[in-house]
Amino acid sequence: MRMFAVEYTYSREDADARLAARPDHRSWLSGLVSTGVVVSAGAFADGTGALILVAADKIGDVDALRKLLADDPFATGGFIHGVQIREWSPVLGALSD
């Protein structure tokens, strides 16, 4: 399964405000999980960011993905300080074809 690996970068300085927005962020992600767009998502243990795995066949291209990510409550709240998107094709393990 071809995917996009989306890496968010957060600032520790707005951690409390981001925590307050987390329920809306998780609700947004849950909706995308239920439609199969998001395969998995989670924050890094050190609190500096998160990883979101997106099914490429459900979203299309990077431009469509960027438009989708702009609707994330963390994005609209200004809590995402960097976004890196890479196409990823797992070849072994649970996420491989």
TrEMBL record:
Pfam families, A to Z: YCII
Protein name: YCII-related domain-containing protein
Domain YCII-related residue range list: 3-89
Family classification: Belongs to the YciI family.
Alphabetical list of InterPro entries matching this protein: Dimeric_a/b-barrel, YCII
Species assigned in the record: Hoyosella altamirensis
Superkingdom of the organism of origin: Bacteria
